[in-house]
């Protein structure tokens, strides 16, 4: 039709002082996520949703769930740049396979303790902010938790995501990653 359709808006601004290092205690974070999930089962759940990830987009190596001090669900996953992807650090501020792996880890927020998923599917919807605080590494940890607002509005749920290097420095912060819960659909079949 020739009409312009807007799909996203981006505002680029200077981040906080890049010399400021944000550190987390990885061993404490790991101990607060005792429920480990089988990564093969996670990618099987994605396949069941019609999301078939090729080898270059299967960055999750480990995924565990737990609760924060307030009893809210959290996810800690270990990501690795897949071997099928060129290991070139110079071309990306954040490698797309690792970013996708971080988004995939959000699935852990709706996994049951037995590894099965809840009945609703969550689809990526929006992101409030992304901060690059340092360089990405081929192996990183991703910590997912409910957004600080703590409010779920209707079918939209927001999470905060940190990508953390093995030394505990937060390298990438994503705030307000929103997923929209897909509405259940009924199919009518006339025989």
Structure characterization notes:
The protein contains three helices and eight strands, in the order αβαββαβββββ. It has 191 residues and is of the alpha+beta class. The longest helix is centred in the first third of the chain and has 10 residues, at 39-48.
State the helicity in percent bands: 10-25%
Distance between the termini: 38 Å
Major β-sheet, in short?
A: 8 strands, antiparallel
* Element string (H = helix, E = strand): HEHEEHEEEEE
Inertia-based shape: globular
Rg from alpha-carbon coordinates: 18 Å
Number of strands: 8
Structural class: alpha+beta
Strand content: 25-35%
User: Overall mean pLDDT score?
Assistant: 82
Low-confidence sequence ranges: 185-191
How many DSSP H or I helices? Answer: 3
């Amino acid at each position: 039709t020739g009409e312009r359709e807007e799909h996203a808006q981006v505002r680029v601004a200077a981040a906080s002082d890049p010399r400021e290092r944000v550190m987390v205690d990885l061993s404490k974070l790991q101990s607060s996520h005792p429920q480990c999930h089988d990564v093969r089962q996670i990618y099987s759940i994605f396949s069941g949703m019609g999301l078939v990830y090729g080898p270059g987009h299967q960055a999750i190596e480990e995924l565990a769930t737990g609760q924060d001090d307030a009893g809210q669900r959290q996810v800690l996953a270990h990501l690795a740049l897949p071997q099928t992807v060129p290991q070139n650090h110079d071309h990306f501020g954040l490698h797309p396979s690792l970013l996708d792996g971080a988004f995939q880890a959000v699935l852990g927020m709706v996994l049951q303790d037995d590894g099965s998923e809840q009945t609703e599917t969550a689809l990526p919807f929006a992101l409030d902010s992304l901060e690059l605080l340092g360089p990405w590494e081929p192996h990183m940890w991703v910590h997912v938790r409910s957004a600080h607002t703590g409010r779920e509005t209707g079918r939209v749920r927001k999470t905060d995501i940190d990508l953390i290097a093995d030394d505990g420095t937060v390298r990438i912060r994503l705030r307000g990653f929103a997923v929209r819960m897909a509405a259940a659909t009924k199919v009518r079949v006339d025989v």
